[in-house]
Specification:
Length: 450
């Protein structure tokens, strides 16, 4: 599709915004961009985009610019409640997200995965299984390649396996997934969506443009997800940890089953009961995509953990160090903690997302040696978990790691699983995780006292 002569404004110059600039410029649009960051922070990005941009506005979002456009494309990280976006819509300017434009041009078949937790691992696992089976597969969306960059090289014979966030889905109106999977829906991003109901509605949009020829894979063990069964327009496939009353994917007798056939082992190379759920969803999706049973089993066994998702970093002096920086909400941290029997030195904190930390209390009692609090949310976490375990205000990840390393005993575990966003001290969860890994690596090289 061409956009010759149209004035298009891209709001936000993260990876998705950069892809949008290139996408519309190549199709004849006059593209402007706006970002709240300062020029120093975006220097290299600005230079790479100059051939595509007519104008760029940094350090804020000028009201007048929004009203002069034919089309505005906010990046997923931009809040749709932004006053300038509201004013533009009120004045008849079309505001739409990247998914709607990809829907017109992305070739091949599409697998979309959403959920509060487990998206990246499941998408990566599906992509791995499909590739191992010899299918042309591209992984992207909210991870890897931005969706609008994927469009340029898509082919009729490919499978696009996409991680779709609530931010992307809330802006979508016409994006079709031939296979859609919803892993779980627990409170997250309430600071952005305003309510749990609005968050659920955003997730449910992954089903909205499906047809009777499509399939939806839903978690029957998760109440909020199971409640969306009535929205499914095509084939409904359940997954759950124990054998369901009707057909789907489940675990029983050390095996993963689909439609009554064994398609893998529950003895997985990725740790945690939550990763069994991810594997069940991935097995169901792969089977629906036509992957043979033996290839599903092989792919499940050869898959390796995704970075920042309950990733074992090192064992130093008999103490294990795990990086679970992607645990940016309470439910993700719950699943991480459930993966360990005890002896945990747990690092919690960052920027609060209105999380219910008190809901962790029963799980943490007797399992955690000490809670090491970091970042802005430390006072809130202390107030909700006082008395559950000893609490230590460490301030930073470095201080928390040092404290734990000096006290943890062989057989115990130091776990970064913050239950919070990273933006108070880091650019994103990946930067936080990489800093933790760097600090652990430095710890491993320190001379030991005699």
């Amino acid at each position: 599709m061409r956009y010759d002569g149209q004035k298009v404004l891209v709001v936000g110059l993260g990876a998705s915004g950069q892809a949008a600039v290139r996408f519309f410029a190549r199709r004849g649009a006059r593209v402007e961009a706006t970002d709240s960051s300062n020029p120093e922070r975006l220097g290299a990005i600005i230079e790479s985009l100059r051939p595509y941009l007519a104008e760029i506005h940094l350090g804020g979002h000028p009201d007048k610019v929004f009203l002069e456009q034919d089309l505005i494309v906010p990046s997923p990280g931009v809040d749709w409640r932004l006053p300038q976006l509201r004013a533009a819509r009120h004045n008849g300017v079309r505001v739409a997200g990247e998914l709607d434009f990809a829907a017109d041009e992305l070739r091949g078949r599409v697998i979309g995965v959403t959920g509060a937790n487990g998206k990246t691992t499941t998408v990566s696992l599906i992509g791995h299984i499909l590739r191992e089976a010899g299918l042309r597969t591209v992984v992207g969306g909210n991870i890897g390649r931005p969706l609008l960059d994927m469009v340029e090289e898509s082919t009729d014979d490919q499978w696009s396996v996409l991680e779709l966030s609530s931010f992307q889905l809330e802006a979508a109106s016409a994006f079709r997934c031939h296979i859609a999977a919803i892993l779980n829906i627990t409170p997250d991003h309430l600071d952005r969506h305003g309510s749990f109901e609005a968050y659920v509605a955003a997730k449910a949009k992954i089903l909205a443009s499906q047809t009777p020829d499509d399939a939806a894979v839903l978690n029957r063990d998760d109440a909020a997800t199971a409640a969306l069964a009535g929205d499914v327009k095509g084939r409904l496939v359940w997954f759950q940890r124990s054998r369901p009353a009707d057909r789907g994917a489940w675990a029983d007798g050390g095996r993963i089953w689909f439609e009554g056939r064994p398609v893998g082992s529950t003895d997985l190379p990725i740790r945690g009961a939550h990763n069994l759920e991810n594997a069940l969803a991935a097995a169901a999706v792969a089977a629906l995509a036509g992957v043979p049973d033996h290839a599903i089993a092989s792919g499940l066994q050869s898959f390796q953990a995704v970075e920042h998702r309950l990733e074992k970093v090192a064992t130093i002096g008999g103490v294990d160090y795990y990086n679970d920086s992607k645990a940016t909400n309470v439910d993700a941290t719950r699943k991480a903690v459930e993966s360990f029997a005890g002896g945990l030195w747990l690092m919690l904190g960052g920027r609060d997302k209105q999380g219910d930390f008190a809901s962790l209390a029963d799980l943490l009692r007797g399992r955690v040696r000490e809670l090491l609090l970091v970042g802005e949310a430390a006072p809130t976490i202390r107030a909700q978990l006082e008395g559950v375990a000893p609490l230590v205000d460490c301030g930073t990840i470095e201080a928390a790691l040092r404290y734990a390393a000096e006290r943890a005993q062989p057989g115990e575990t130091v776990l970064l699983s913050p239950a919070c966003a990273s933006f108070d001290q880091f650019e994103n969860y990946a930067r936080r995780g990489r800093e933790f890994k760097r600090l652990v690596a430095a710890l491993a090289t320190e001379p030991k006292e005699d």
